[in-house]
Design a protein that fits this description.
GO terms for molecular function: hydrolase activity, hydrolyzing O-glycosyl compounds. InterPro entries: Glyco_hydro_43 (IPR006710), Glyco_hydro_beta-prop_sf (IPR023296), Glycosyl_Hydrlase_43_Enz (IPR052176). Belongs to the glycosyl hydrolase 43 family. This is Glycosyl hydrolase family 43. It comes from Epilithonimonas xixisoli. The protein is mainly beta. The protein has a single domain, classed as Tachylectin-2, Chain A (5 Propeller), CATH 2.115.10. It has one helix and 21 strands. Strands 1, 2, 3, 4 and 5 form a five-stranded antiparallel β-sheet that branches. Strands 6, 7, 8, 9 and 10 form a five-stranded antiparallel β-sheet that branches. Strands 11-12-13-14 form a four-stranded antiparallel β-sheet, with no helix packed on it.
């Protein structure tokens, strides 16, 4: 009887293991919580995935986001969840709203650029947190915002200072891009917490938000959300100062989500496109999003083949 029970238990455990691993690599990659605005960092053989936690109840028709989450993976299929590394409340000058963000490493420090609402300056702002580890804990690096809405004058809206993305070029120069309706950019000082140039703009067709910079074979790529509901478009340049050549739509409308937000990485010799949709059933949607990953391929001229969104993912 005991032997029979052990055999049944072993069979059940094996079945559970197989069933669980059969789903790894499929989209959405994380199915037990809602996550939006994904950003990825490749570091020492792992990918670290950072995303805002969508906490809106089913009947709530706007974002409710108080914290960011971090996951890590060595194969993009099995993901380890880490303790909450950062909350909007960790910025004493912020009133809330843990919107889009990105983490980058420089000189052994990890800098997390985040979108939050400001307590005293109307509108969205960009803050910077720092840690000695990619999984945190992170702390406010400045004690104040890096970018506030009164620093940009190109629009009349107060949410144009969102969606920061940071790139460090081959000379070690840090660049910050961000924006909604207008794409802003500026150089960063070596400390990564101060601007080192005037704020400039990039002229892009139908720019909405979510700029992201990456480089491949001598080309810089600036991808971004366009229109609304949002698709992802992109442009190419030999310089981060431009000029940028518009190349068209990279990713069509994401399923069941008005917004789209992308991260593009190279990992273990392959290229990947990370984005969000609203695919978790039964309550996924524009304010309860989920993260997905697809393969990304380049043409011989450096342009990118259109992304094909799948439920299979990279499995």
């Amino acid at each position: 009887m005991i032997l029979k029970f052990k055999n049944i238990a072993a069979t059940a455990l094996l079945s559970f293991y197989i069933a669980g691993n059969a789903q790894t690599g499929e989209n959405p990659i994380i199915k037990d919580e809602f996550l939006g605005d994904p950003a990825a960092l490749v570091h020492k053989g792992k990918v670290y995935l950072y995303a805002g936690h969508d906490e809106a109840p089913n009947d709530f028709n706007f974002y409710k986001m108080n914290e960011w989450k971090v996951y890590s993976s060595s194969d993009l299929k099995t993901w380890d969840k880490h303790p909450v590394p950062l909350k909007a409340s960790d910025f004493a000058w912020a009133s809330g709203d843990a919107w889009a963000s990105q983490v980058i490493e420089k000189n052994g420090k990890f800098y997390w650029y985040v979108t939050v609402s400001h307590k005293t300056i109307p509108g969205k702002s960009i803050g910077v947190a720092v840690s000695d580890s990619p999984i945190g804990p992170f702390k406010d690096a400045l004690g104040k915002a890096l970018i506030t809405n009164d620093m940009t004058k190109k629009t009349t809206i107060d949410w144009d200072d969102i969606d920061p993305t940071v790139y460090i070029d081959d000379k070690g120069q840090g660049w910050l891009f961000w924006g909604n309706t207008v794409c802003y950019y500026a150089k960063l000082k070596n400390n990564m917490t101060e601007l080192d140039s005037e704020i400039k703009t990039v002229d892009l067709p139908k720019f909405t938000e979510a700029p992201y910079i990456h480089k491949k074979n001598g080309w810089y790529y600036l991808s971004y959300a366009t229109g609304f509901p949002e698709k992802i478009a992109y442009a190419m340049s030999k310089s981060l100062d431009g000029p940028w050549e518009y190349k068209g739509i990279l990713n069509e409308l994401a399923g069941n989500s008005n917004t789209n937000h992308q991260s593009i990485i190279e990992f273990k010799g392959k290229d990947y496109f990370i984005y969000h949709n609203g695919a978790i059933e039964p309550n996924g949607g524009s304010f309860r999003r989920s993260v997905a990953i697809e393969h990304l391929y380049y043409n011989k001229d450096g342009s990118i083949k259109p992304i094909i969104m799948t439920t299979k993912g990279i499995n």
